[in-house]
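Final report, closing paragraph on structural work. Over the funding period we assembled a curated collection of sequence-structure pairs, and we close with a single example.
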Amino acid sequence: MRKSDIRPDAELKYKRILLKLSGEMFGGKAGLGFDYDAINAVAQQVKSLWERGVQIGLVVGGGNIFRGAGSGQPGMDRVAADHMGMLATVINALCMQDALERIGVQTRVMSAIEMRAIAEPYIKRRADRHLEKGRVVIFAAGTGSPFFTTDTAAALRASEMSAQLLIKATKVDGVYDKDPRRYKDAVRFDRLTFGEVLSRDLKVMDATAIAFCKDHGIPILVLDMEHPENLSKALEGGPVGTLVT
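Its predicted structure, as stored:
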């Protein structure tokens, strides 16, 4: 049976999602370079959803390699630094593509910066067609423009592909009122509004991405992907992570 012939599971609340992966997730516990055990674990979780008929888009960061202006030398040109960061996301996209295809998941990498030898140029209609055919689409190179984060790229692609949910995968089990790794009395939120996130400056995603999702009615779910069952629970509408609506 072809993947495109598999019918979506009726129990799933969300049938088309955008999954935002930070570059640090590629680096495992260190958050730098490539931890292939961590990468393969993420690929297996994506496969488990793909096998249930979920249409999946991925936006990957590049922080394990280069974080734009934050990684450059003092005085480095911001545009040059951001372009380097975008190229880092392409490297991660190709890495994730390899991990997925080695376990039988059909994928396409689409880049906002044209590089036809290694990735398809991003075209919305083509991305839609890949998703309809049951391919996981990995969106690389951010928005293709400097000064915009991969959070903003995730919000943009989620809107363009009419995603029902944007999932931000992290190493924390939701959104807290302060850093739970530093403060034992940090309180986790189950649900938040976009207005609360912005007014309390909760750092769920950057303000541009939050405002974009608010304007386009795209809910954001922040969850911990280190627990393999969380993604499935989320798509079934179960209580996991923090939902921003």
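The two ends are 37 Å apart (CA to CA). The longest helix spans residues 78-101. We thank the funder for supporting this effort.
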